[in-house]
Amino acid sequence: PKPKLPPHVIALQELDKLKTEELWQREKVKDYYTRLTDIVRVYIEDRFSIAAMEQTTFEILNSFKGEDLQMEKKTVKELGDILELADYVKFAKLTPLPDENHKMLSNAYLFVKDTTIETVAEVPKPAETKGKDDATVDLSDKKEESQL
Q1: Mean per-residue pLDDT for 95-111?
Q2: CA separation for the pair 42, 55 (Å, rounded)
């Protein structure tokens, strides 16, 4: 089986798909925000092991205020902006301005990028070869012969 992709890779791919679907441009604003928040919530579950799909916006944001996660206030604010506006769209039938729709997608990208764990793959060292000194060839004699 294929190894599972890291959460940030999956989230960024899904955000790219959402962007190309242009849901809010086709008057499907509620669908747009439902997909956007689902992508973010799944990312949160996979990345932070927080049951975000079953939690309210308030509960999710409170999870990030704990000392264990130590996230920047700006990052939590970006997440809060996404989730809160999405709640208004989905439950209060708010219709955001096009700029707000674009900004929430940008906030989602920023949230994922700001919370991505950088993994450094360790480069294996080349194996020591036995008798590598024996493999060197002295070409000094050969030069003299070719000049004659």
Answers
A1: 94
A2: 12
Instruction: Render pLDDT for 14-32 as a digit per residue (tens, 0 to 9).
Output: 999 999 999 988 999 999 9
Distances from the Cα of 100 to the Cαs of 1, 35, 78, 83, in angstroms? 40, 16, 12, 13
Smallest Cα–Cα separation from 103: which of 119, 115, 85?
85
Average pLDDT rounded to a whole number, residues 20-48: 94
Cα–Cα separations (whole angstroms), residue 93 to 29, 89, 104: 9, 5, 17
Q: Which two tokens stand for residue 19?
A: 């962007």
Q: For residues 41 and 11, what is the distance between their CA atoms, to the nearest angstrom?
A: 10
Q: At what angle do helices 29-48 and 7-21 cross, to 10 degrees?
A: 170
User: Which H or E run includes 95?
Assistant: none
Beta carbons of 44 and 50 less than 8 angstroms apart: yes
CB 75 within 8 A of CB 112: no
Q: Is the pLDDT of residue 12 over 90?
A: yes
Token readout for 42 is: 């799944």
Its sign, for the CA torsion 38, 39, 45, 48, is negative
